[in-house]
Structures are given as structure tokens and as C-alpha cells.
Amino acid sequence: MKTIQMVDLQTQYQRIKSEIDTGIREVIDSTEFVKGPKVSQFQEHLQTWTGSRHIIPVGNGTDALQIALMSLGLQRGDEVITPTFTFIATAEVVALLGLTPVVVDVEWDTMNISVEAIRRAITPRTKAIVPVHLFGQCANMEAIMDIAKEHHLYVIEDACQAIGAQYTFSDGTTRQAGTMGHIGCTSFFPSKNLGCYGDGGAIYTQDDALAERMRAIANHGMVVRYHHDYIGVNSRLDAIQAAVLDAKLPHLHEYILSRQHAAARYDEALGGDERLILPGRDAHSTHVFHQYTLRVVGRDRDALKEQLLQAGIPAMVYYPVPLHMQKAYQDPRYQEGDFPVAERLAQCVLSLPMHTELDDEQLQYIIEHVLA
User: Fold this and answer.
1) Can you tell me whether residue 9 is helix, strand or coil?
2) What pLDDT is attached to residue 216?
């Protein structure tokens, strides 16, 4: 049996080596390393794949979130609501811009942001909501967009873990993660479902004016060369990473099916163990399983993690400390115990290996050791 990894990029690369190598060689031969035709080509293909009117490729997912917020004309002290159970970048960019992160609790079942918690957190200073499509499925976007419309708020989707997830609205229309809010952000970090071989990210929007502004902000605030209309940053997806992503994009549907197959195997085998709670599914969203995250409730989570490690099975805790308990984000508004669901999740979540190259032998081995 092959060594089990959390993410097996080497095997994935070998399957499409000729496509990847050809794309990279074309960039090197052209010497157009910044912007250039490969970036434009990937941008166009991703627009078609996602159904987004505009795609702005950027340097990474964190930059995508920062540029999105910068484009909205928010003022220092304006409040931005986001879940406390997420990766730090979601709140980090809010704080960096002098805005006020307002963290709220999440749902126990899906681990996504709680709609009722959003409602309770809105104040006259609230200007935006940043829902996170955690672990690969969409938050309750229909309800979130209704709240945003009612209170005249912007919605920036953090879709960095959920590219390809589909959300179905009550009228039957279906949209992809990242294409429902005013702006959507994604990451192409190597471990993501669509990952490059370095850093990369993209911003989605259907709004022409926002798209123009974000393109300028990502390029030092320039609309016309050497004429700076906005305070900007330097954030570009380089051409070699675009070539890698463009080679992988046609395989993304296949990658999603592979992850869903692995998740179904886990579900079937682990569902009868009362010590474990399987990943919850939102009724309106598909799940693309960036992570397969159990809640370990009837045994010691950390002991299980160590037991798996001793058997050669990596397992990870995403995330061990909610945002409101992080040293850098300590705030007198929040105390331990204020967000009981997030705090409980931090104590019991455990993510099993999940990637496109898991085979049945590996899955069976992992299952046997989880159940041991």
C-alpha cells in the first residue's frame, strides 16, 4: 500500500504530468511570466466554469479577501461579521484594514456560520458579512443574501475551500460557491481542490464597477498606466501558476467526484460508530470535501489522532482555537464561553485524509484504524 498522505499532490501530478509540463514550458518559452496569455486564458476558462461574469486572478486567497474589502469604500471602525470558527485569514484582512471584525457562532451540524447569529450581531455600524463555505459546502446563502438586502449590507463569500460546490435556491436556481454574493474569493493554495504549485487566488463578481475597481486595486490602484485612482496593492497570479491551474481545471469535476466517493466510503463505514458524528450536509448545497471532518464525541480526540499517526495515517485538527480565543484577536467584547458551538467544535473536530488519489485499500486501512 502507498504511504497515506493528507494530500497526495505527487500522484495527482503524475496523472497529468504531460499537461502540466507542457503548460509550464510554454510560459518559460514565451518568457511572459507576469500576466500574459496564460493568465488571461485561465481567467476566461474559470469564468466559463464558474459562471461568474468577472474573474480577477490575484496572488493568493488572503489577498483576494483584502482586495474585496478594499473595493467597498468601508471606513475605519465599520463592522464586518464573520464566523469565529474558520482560518485566521478571514478576520485578519478585516483587522489589517482598520475595520472591526465581529465574530459569531456557527451551526453544530454543518459547521458553517449561523444565520441567527448574524441577525443578532447586526448594528448600525455593520457594513458587510463574510460567510465562509467551510470544508467544502456552502453556507446558507439564500438566508444570508436576504439579511444583506434587508440591512443594505455587502456579502463577500470566502469560498477558498469550496470551489465547485453548488447551492440551490428555493426557486430552483443553482449557483456555484463564490458567485452568489456581491464578491466571492477563492484560494489556489496547493492543497485546495483546485490548487497550483505555489500561491494563487481569484476574486469573482457579477458587478462591472466592482470588477473594474478590484482589478485596479490589485495592480497598485492603476486604471491607466502610471495613473493611480485608488490606494492599491501588488497582487498577481503569475503565469506559471496559471498554466498549472489551467491544466487542472478540466479535471476539477473528476476531482470532486473522487473526493465525494472517498467521503461516501467514510460515511458508510463510520456512520454506525456512536463515538463519531459524520460531517453534516446542508440540504441546499453539494459538498466538495476539501476536508472530511468528523466530530469525535465519545472518545478522546487527541488520543485518536495520535493513534492514527502511529499507524501511518495523518489526521489534522481544523481548527483548534476559535478566532475570539486567539491571542492576536483578544477583545473585551468576547469571552471564553460566548460561542459554545465553535468552542465545542475546536475540542472535537478531526479531519481524515481527503484527496483525489485515495484508493480503496488506503480508505479501508484508515477506516479500520479509526474504528479500532
Assistant:
1) helix
2) 98
Specify the residue for cell string 476566461: 44
pLDDT digits (tens, 9 = 90+) for 70-86: 999 999 999 999 999 99
Compute, in degrees rounded to 10, the torsion defined by CA atoms 235, 237, 239, 240. Answer: 120
DSSP-derived secondary structure letter, 2 = P
**Based on C-alpha coordinates, what's the Rg of the chain?**
21
Q: What is the pLDDT of residues 1-25, one digit of tens each?
A: 999 999 999 999 999 999 999 999 9
> Shortest CA distance to 137 belongs to which of 258, 290, 264, 267?
290
The confidence score (pLDDT) of residue 348 equals 98
Domains of the chain listed by start with CATH number: 9-249 (3.40.640.10), 251-371 (3.90.1150.10)
**With 0-12 CB in 10 A as exposed, 13-18 as middle and 19+ as buried, what is 68?**
buried
Which grid cell sits at 364?
479501508
Question: How many C-beta neighbours within 10 Å does residue 298 have?
Answer: 11
> How far, in Å, CA of 131 to CA of 140, rounded?
9
H-only helix segments in the chain: 9-15, 17-30, 36-50, 61-70, 89-96, 115-121, 141-151, 208-218, 239-248, 252-270, 301-310, 340-348, 360-371
Please choose, from the candidates 70, 63, 291, the residue with its C-alpha nearest in 3D space to the C-alpha of residue 186.
63
pLDDT 10s digits, 12-68: 999 999 999 999 999 999 999 998 999 999 999 999 999 999 999 999 999 999 999
CA 69 – CA 155 distance, rounded (Å): 10
Grid cell, residue 221, equals 490602484
Q: DSSP readout, 323-343? A: GGGSGGG--TT--TTSSHHHH
> pLDDT-based confidence at 176, cuts 50/70/90?
very high
Amino acid at 204: Y
8 Å CB contact between 193 and 50: no
Instruction: Please tell me the distance from the alpha carbon of residue 355 to that of residue 352, in angstroms, as a whole number.
Output: 10
- Span 345-360, mean pLDDT? 98
Identify the pLDDT of residue 21. Answer: 98
Q: Can you tell me whether residue 247 is helix, strand or coil?
A: helix
Say what the pLDDT of residue 159 is.
98
- Residue 128 in contact with residue 80, Cβ under 8 Å? yes
With cell 511570466, the residue in question is 33
